[in-house]
Amino acid sequence: MLRSLNGIFAILSKEMIQMSRDRLTFAMILMIPVVQLVLFGYAINTDPKHLATAVHVEEQTPMVRSILTGMKNSDYFDFILTTGNGEETESLLRDGKVSFVLSIPAGFTKALIRGEQPQLLLEADASDPAAASNAMAQIRQIVLQALQPDLTGPLSYLAVSADPVDVVVHRAYNPEGITQYNIVPGLVGVILTMTMVMITSMAMTREVERGTMENLLAMPVKPYQVMFGKITPYIFVGIIQTFIILAAAHFLFRVPFAGSMSVLALGVSLFILANLALGFTFSTIARSQMQAMQLTIFFFLPSILLSGFMFPFRGMPIWAQWIGEALPLTHFLRIIRGVMLKDTPGMALLNEFAAIGLFMLVVGAIAMKRYRRTLD
Amino acid sequence: MREKALQQNLSDDLAIDVCDLVKDFGSKRAVDKVSIQMPRGQVWGFLGPNGSGKTTTIRMICGLLEPTSGYGNCLGLDIQKEADAIKKATGYMTQKFSFWEDMTIRENLAFVARLYQLHPIKQVVDETLKTLGLFDRQHQLAGHLSGGWKQRLALAAVTMHNPALLLLDEPTAGVDPQARRDFWDEIHRLAGSGMTVLVSTHYMDEAERCDRIVYLSHGKIMVQGRVQEIVKEVGLVTFKATGDGARERVEAFRRDDRVDYASYFGAALHISARDRQALQAAIGEFGDGLQWQEIETGLEDAFIALSQMQHMQSNTSGKG
Ligand SMILES: Nc1ncnc2c1ncn2[C@@H]1O[C@H](COP(=O)(O)OP(=O)(O)O)[C@@H](O)[C@H]1O
Ligand SMILES: [Mg+2]
């Protein structure tokens, strides 16, 4: 036991020394989260206005006009066309000609006056959540405000009661409603996937490229000692990155943190280990740092595309969902989004933890099997 | 079954005892039926031109490459099954510098000391640094050292755990003469303390510092034994010519079938052949006006003649 720890510690301290001398890698480790946050953060922070909107209105009354004027004045909505039938609006949305379709049915005003809370339907193309989300968040407020001047005299009771109008927002193409709140926690997973896999796979292939591998192989050190020794320093790197992103999530983007810190810490640790194990496995396949990098990207792309980070998971075709289920990022996203946004209890996430753990074991076993003890 | 029985005969007094080692890389045979029986406590030279299979053989001996066929022991341990134990008991200095260039001398040594579990680390490292005269440079990055100092560091690192067998792969390539001499003094000091040393090199003068040499060509052992014996065994007669115009004659001698080997040494011309009569006849024909003198054949002449006479290989290999 002590002997095996000794070997791990030897590799670990060597790795720490080398990491401290390699400024480029160190800068990369810190810069990647910052750059990604700025990129995504920019998209998140933009508050797109003047979004093309089609109007499908079946009656023209002063109140309806007030609503339309109020929406227009909010600067979010540009009414580019008025349509007569519902089918047409559907295709407009699907083809991306408009971002919103506003529908006000006949009899809306009468129902409103009677206090029946008639429906006002805003259909949104939510496939680009960053673009549409602010407008969707504001619509109710805009409508109520626009009606305020009309609800005077005998109608003033409507202004103080529950909402006089039932504003229904229909998120087409993105029923899960991925919003900016989902993206920032997701970034933790994306950045860890990218950097953890890349750093470990390159740290090993570097030994091969520089010829130091022969020396390492000639000395009495076992594969698992090399693996743990190489991986451990990067666990701390991953934790630092996580802190950077979570701090940004909290202070810059005001993402709420609803759930348990310790469940999240457990999820992050497990996820970091799984990715490090994968990086180590890649290093047993790649023969150069270049190949290690390519393998990383080869893994990274499906991870961001099929994990539910970019596109809503349930909206993907079944085969894509199956691939997604095999990726640790998919499960990590469910953990971190669940914990941060919905206060999902740890027990309810057991399956996700188990999936990541399984991935780690399989990948680690492959690494141990593939690790070359000779130069062959 | 037969192989098993043979293996039992491998003796424990031998530091290296390998039999018919073969290594193929794809269709290329890098090492072809190499057998070496090297007693403990000696210094042996491993010679041969570039690409002759020296590195590959050394790697098989210390368990870093699986032989394609063949078997053997290193320090009484099976080279295929007991590679871990071999690694603990040998020191292997690679041909290309393979320590960590982004770590200091001290950090490199401390890393090695930790892996071999040498205690107390600080003391062991300090002593090693002092013995090898590296103490003042201990905080320099290994990558910033000159060739000679890198070799010193590597030697220090592979001998720190006091291995029974030292395998040095071209340790003095690209090192200046003074540093080479110091390096060899160090090798003999280590041998004096009981280490068995196998050094690969292609410097002939270094071969003469070894108890025995093994000469490899195209993956096969062409000859092995003491330097004097080998020279004798090759059986060359060598004449040296001095005087005006010695240099101009070399082409004529090279073309002549009776001469095995002709070359300059400074202003002098050396010609060698195995057949004294034929050689003298050739001198009679092309050697007018030069001063001729018979000399002892040098090892280099012997080896070059050897590699031109491939057919000799079958008669001499295996002796030793
Ligand atoms: N890993 C390898 N893959 C393919 N060929 C190799 C490998 N290592 C050595 N060789 C070939 O085997 C032959 C012997 O090489 P080597 O043992 O390095 O010779 P030496 O050390 O005597 O210069 C050379 O032709 C070399 O190209
Ligand atoms: Mg070599």
Give a quick set of tags describing it.
heterodimer; A: 376 residues; alpha/beta; abc type-2 transporter like fold; 2 domains; 5-stranded mixed β-sheet; 66% helix; 9% strand; B: 320 residues; Rossmann fold; Alpha-Beta Plaits; 6-stranded mixed β-sheet; 4-stranded antiparallel β-sheet; 13 helices; 14 strands; 37% helix; globular; disordered N terminus; binds adenosine-5'-diphosphate; binds magnesium ion
Descriptive overview:
- In chain A, helix 3 links the parallel strand 1 and strand 2.
- Chain A is α/β, with parallel strands linked by helices.
- The mean pLDDT of chain A is 84.
- Chain A contains 15 helices and 5 strands.
- Chain A folds into 2 domains: 122 residues, abc type-2 transporter like fold; 197 residues, no CATH class.
- In chain B, the strands form 3 sheets. A 6-stranded mixed beta sheet of chain B has the order 6-7-8-3-9-10, sandwiched between helices. A 4-stranded antiparallel beta sheet of chain B has the order 2-1-4-5, covered by helices on one side. A 4-stranded antiparallel beta sheet of chain B has the order 12-13-11-14.
- Chain B folds into 2 domains: 173 residues, P-loop containing nucleotide triphosphate hydrolases (Rossmann fold, 3-Layer(aba) Sandwich); 85 residues, Alpha-Beta Plaits (2-Layer Sandwich), CATH 3.30.70.
- Chain B contains 13 helices and 14 strands.
- The two termini of chain B are 28 Å apart.
- By secondary structure, chain B is α/β, with parallel strands linked by helices.
- Chain B is globular.
- In chain B, helix 4 packs across helix 5 and helix 9 crosses helix 12.
- The N terminus and C terminus of chain B are likely disordered.
- At the A-B interface, helix 1 and helix 9 of A face helix 3 and helix 4 of B.
- Adenosine-5'-diphosphate binds next to strand 2 and helix 2 of chain B.
- The site of magnesium ion has 5 residues of chain B, from helix 2.
- Chain B: It holds the Pfam family ABC_tran.
- Chain B: Keywords: ATP-binding, Nucleotide-binding.
- Chain B: GO terms for molecular function: ATP binding.
